[in-house]
Write a structure and sequence with these properties.
- This protein is of the alpha/beta class and about 280 residues long.
- The chain has 2 domains: about 150 residues, Periplasmic binding protein-like II (D-Maltodextrin-Binding Protein, domain 2, 3-Layer(aba) Sandwich), CATH 3.40.190; about 100 residues, Periplasmic binding protein-like II (D-Maltodextrin-Binding Protein, domain 2).
- It is built from 13 helices and 14 strands.
- The strands form 3 sheets. Strands 2, 7, 8, 9, 10, 11, 12, 13 and 14 form a 9-stranded mixed sheet that branches. It has a 3-stranded antiparallel sheet with strand order 3-4-5.
- Strand 4 and strand 5 form a beta hairpin.
- The chain is globular, with a radius of gyration of 23 Å.
């Protein structure tokens, strides 16, 4: 009798174990850690532990879409975005992260979810700046770890201006407000966020003045998770075609919307552009 009861208990236990669902995973983990900027108004900004901006809204959409747990986002500097993914200090990075050939060698991207161009932000003493030539003889600031550094390397030859590279965005904005530099140069999407944040200080984006190649913002992932990468890319292709994507940009970057009437055609990526840059080692022709 005792043996029969023991056998039944054992069988019941085995049945219970077999009916349990396996732990859900994405990118090889059961809880996703997302790295984000905390100092870019309109894109990824943190104040009193509250995050806002287009990148943060993208994070919230992904959190709803992917059926795993997410930790609170962690901060990342521009220069550490690739390193944090490689070292698995983050599982995903949403941080105005331009997709480039060099970065695609080391990590995967899903994107773009936004396109932009590199432009110029000036202060109140730059009221007369309307063309690139108007910056001749001035200093132009950008910060470490961004594609903007490379794009500014030729500014001395093309415009007669001197590039200044500082540690982060706040350093450049502080020097612009103090009049130590004439302009700040990086992606226009970022600059329009600063223009709105510092409107009272007289900061503005110089319209229709850009340099370098178009920038394509992607979601950074560690390599080695092709199926999950493709799943996220498939979702993104649908998302950028929704009114939710338009509303997120309008909410996060209202100054860009105001200044650029044709912003959708210039900033919205196509499904083909997403396919060409997502989950690949190089950009597809």
């Amino acid at each position: 009798m005792f043996g029969t009861v023991a056998t039944l208990v054992l069988l019941a236990g085995l049945a219970a174990c077999s009916s349990e669902e396996p732990e859900r995973e994405f990118l090889g983990v059961q809880r996703i850690t997302v790295a984000m900027h905390n100092d870019l108004p309109g894109l990824s900004y943190s104040s009193n532990y509250d995050r806002s901006g287009l990148d943060f809204l993208m994070f919230q959409h992904i959190e709803e879409e992917i059926d795993v747990d997410f930790s609170e986002p962690v901060d990342v500097s521009s220069g550490d975005r690739v390193t944090q993914l490689i070292q698995r200090k983050a599982d995903m990075t949403i941080a105005s992260f331009s997709i480039t050939a060099d970065r695609m060698d080391e990590i995967d991207f899903v994107g773009p979810y936004l396109k932009t161009r590199q432009g110029f932000l000036v202060g109140p003493d730059g009221a007369g700046i309307e063309r690139l030539a108007d910056l001749r003889g001035s200093q132009i600031c950008t910060w470490q770890g961004t594609t903007s550094v490379e794009a500014l390397k030729g500014i001395r030859e093309t415009a007669g201006a001197d590039p200044v590279t500082l540690t982060d965005a706040s350093d450049c904005i502080e020097q612009l407000i103090d009049g130590q530099v004439k302009a700040v140069s990086t992606d226009q999407a970022i600059l329009y966020g600063f223009a709105r944040q510092y409107e009272k200080e007289g900061l503005r984006v110089v319209p229709d003045v850009t340099i370098g190649a178009p920038q394509h913002y992607g979601i950074g992932l560690p390599k080695g998770h092709t199926a999950d990468c493709r799943k996220l890319a498939s979702w993104l292709k649908k998302h950028v075609g929704t009114s939710s994507w338009i509303r997120d940009v309008e909410t996060s970057l209202p100054t860009l919307i105001k200044e650029d009437a044709g912003w959708i055609s210039s900033h919205k990526p196509s499904a083909a552009e997403i396919e060409a840059r997502s989950c690949r080692d190089s950009i597809s022709p």
